[in-house]
Specification:
It is built from 24 helices and no strands. The longest helix is centred in the middle third of the chain and has 24 residues. With 460 residues, the chain is mainly α.
Length: 460
């Protein structure tokens, strides 16, 4: 079990007995109750931490715990430890273990070879030292060769991440957030074990993409601080994986979070840093669009237009499909959504109306969040050109969205539109008042608001 499945020694012994973590903790507690001065208060979680040590999520078992575990499992204490354990143990514990192993060794007849425990207590010399070194090398090779993840398992993790990223474009955010979190935790658990270096890099890559998706969903739920935390962790994973495209996507996600947090200079900085990696696929298109979005919010029209032109140039140079796709991709429809928003901010409502009408005229199904923002941009263009009646008609599909799909960016853009209505010449008219009332009613029951009203509102 240790070699084939990459289990830690203590976990392997438990599975060999067919016990759960709770059954093991019950046996430990029962045994320790019979040992004066040796009682432990174990539960399933603590036994799992003893098994995972010396991984970061583990806890070092004391010598007393090891003694009780050995008795419960019917083995020697040294069989519960491998080379990795011994390297992490205090020297004082190792000396006690060596002393106990030597004391427990039965008398040897002449010519008998010493046991491994006795050999550990007495340093070998001469040819025996060479043979011992060779045995140690073989033990280490067996340890290094073991992997807790195979190539097929890695392919499955990537496939599940791609499916999740695609599902988010059409599904509700909260269930998909929970799914992404579970998948991320699976990857983290694998990283606590052993695998080949290339497999470790692949696992860090998947973990980075999942943290990036969690950051994106968190921001769509209005949880910007938590989204920033996910983004920083995603960046660490990208660095550990040394993955150029992942770095670009993480910086795109962080640019998005900074934009909705009102940190436009940070949003521009993240977008430019991401573009510097010259990623394959469409990440470069999205990064240029995000830079244009932030510049237009700052009122820098020329810089915004230049970034939009750059997004076109990058799009024409894309020849490689995105590694994950779905949420982590930027096609023409998504680019048109950014373009329309920028055109509105730089004072080109006519161009924005033409952009939205052309995009909304496409027959292919598009992500509901992007479609909603596109229709809001269309309504804003109508408000500037044709009045509140045309704007209200454009908004009808948006206002019909179910509450679970009313993402924070959609709600914010609607509030921006309501503010624009209040500033427009038609502000006092009945159509304008009805439009503002409809927007306020929409915002009263949204995905972020439902999250805030639940007991489990921590999405980090």
């Amino acid at each position: 079990m240790r070699v084939r499945f990459g289990m830690r020694p203590r976990e392997a012994f438990r599975h060999a007995h067919g016990w759960t973590l709770q059954q093991t903790s019950d046996r430990l507690n029962d045994l320790s109750a019979q040992r004066p001065g040796a009682a432990v208060a174990a539960d399933a979680s603590l036994v799992g931490k003893w098994e995972r040590w010396p991984a970061p999520a583990g806890r070092r078992p004391s010598l007393n715990v090891l003694l009780l575990l050995a008795e419960v499992f019917g083995c020697r204490m040294d069989e519960l430890l491998d080379l990795e354990d011994r390297r992490a143990m205090p020297e004082s514990d190792l000396r006690v273990l060596a002393h106990q192993a030597a004391a427990a060794e039965p008398p040897r007849e002449a010519g008998m070879q010493p046991s491994p425990a006795t050999a550990a207590a007495a340093e070998p010399t001469g040819p025996e030292m060479v043979r011992t070194a060779a045995a140690e090398a073989a033990d280490w090779a067996r340890w290094a060769e073991a992997s807790n993840v195979g190539d097929l398992a890695l392919e499955q993790l990537v496939a599940e991440t791609r499916a999740l990223s695609a599902d988010y474009l059409v599904g509700e955010p909260l269930p998909l957030f929970a799914q992404a979190r579970r998948l991320r935790d699976q990857v983290w658990a694998l990283l606590e074990g052993r695998q080949y270096p290339r497999q470790t890099r692949d696992l860090y890559s998947v973990a980075g993409y999942l943290c990036g998706i969690l950051a994106w969903i968190s921001s769509d739920l209005g949880q910007l601080r938590e989204a920033d935390t996910q983004g920083r962790t995603a960046w660490l994973c990208a660095e550990l994986a040394d993955h150029r495209d992942l770095r670009a996507w993480v910086l795109s996600t962080r640019s998005k979070v900074a934009f909705w947090d009102g940190r436009m200079r940070d949003a521009i900085g993240f977008a430019r840093r991401g573009a510097d990696y010259r990623p394959d696929g469409s990440a470069g298109v999205l990064l240029a669009c995000q830079e244009a979005d932030a510049w237009s919010q700052l009122g820098a029209a020329e810089e915004a237009r230049a970034a939009l032109h750059r997004s076109l140039d990058v799009r024409e140079s894309v020849t490689t499909p995105d590694e994950i796709g779905g949420l982590l991709s930027c096609g023409d429809y998504r680019r048109a959504n950014y373009t329309a928003a920028v055109q509105l901010r730089v004072g080109e409502p006519g161009s924005a109306l033409r952009t939205t009408q052309a995009a909304l005229g496409e027959s292919a199904a598009q992500p509901y969040g992007t479609v909603a923002q596109m229709r809001i941009a269309q309504a804003a263009a109508h408000l500037a050109l044709n009045g509140p009646e045309a704007a209200a008609e454009a908004l009808l599909p948006v206002l019909a969205l179910p509450p679970e799909q009313r993402l924070d960016p959609v709600t914010r853009r609607l509030r921006e539109l309501a503010a624009a209505v209040a500033r427009s010449p038609a502000a006092g008219s009945r159509p304008a008042a009805r439009l503002q009332e409809a927007i306020e009613e929409f915002a009263l029951d949204s995905a972020p608001r439902r999250l805030a009203l639940t007991s489990g509102n921590d999405v980090s």
